[in-house]
Amino acid sequence: MPHSSDSSDSSFSRSPPPGKQDSSDDVRKVQRREKNRIAAQKSRQRQTQKADTLHLESEDLEKQNAALRKEIKQLTEEMKYFTSVLNSHEPLCSVLAASTPSPPEVVYSAHAFHQPHVSSPRFQP
């Protein structure tokens, strides 16, 4: 006996009646959309937080970079000053004059061990 399309015969029907099915689908669709909306909102918040963190880190690194560049400039000036002091001291140095005469390369290598007897006016030990 063929199955009739009578809606009262629920032995073969696995889903709710059509009106109830639409309502159930709509509820699930609304819930899914709400869940997706919340997930998207959280994702945007995380993205904004990450951008803010990177911006702050970038600003901090720029400040550090500026401070290091300033220190390099100061140290370069200090090196120029000490080179000038050394160059003006070499012709007058009795310690270097008393040492054995040697080519200029050796005289300069001795500077690593030479203790100056004139202290710098800027740097007192």
Automatic annotation (TrEMBL):
Residues 26-89 form the BZIP domain. One of its GO terms (molecular function) is DNA-binding transcription activator activity, RNA polymerase II-specific. Residues 1-14 have a biased composition (Low complexity). Transmembrane segments: none annotated. GO terms for cellular component: cytoplasm; nucleoplasm; RNA polymerase II transcription regulator complex. Pfam families: bZIP_1. GO terms for biological process: defense response to protozoan; DNA damage response, signal transduction by p53 class mediator; hematopoietic stem cell differentiation; isotype switching; lymphoid progenitor cell differentiation; myeloid dendritic cell differentiation; positive regulation of cytokine production; T-helper 17 cell lineage commitment. InterPro entries: AP-1, bZIP, bZIP_sf. It is found in: Cytoplasm. Gene3D superfamilies: 1.20.5.170. Keywords: Activator, Cytoplasm, Differentiation, DNA-binding, Nucleus, Repressor, Transcription, Transcription regulation. Residues 1-58 are annotated as: Disordered. It comes from the Eukaryota. Belongs to the bZIP family. This is Basic leucine zipper transcriptional factor ATF-like. It comes from Propithecus coquereli. The gene is BATF.
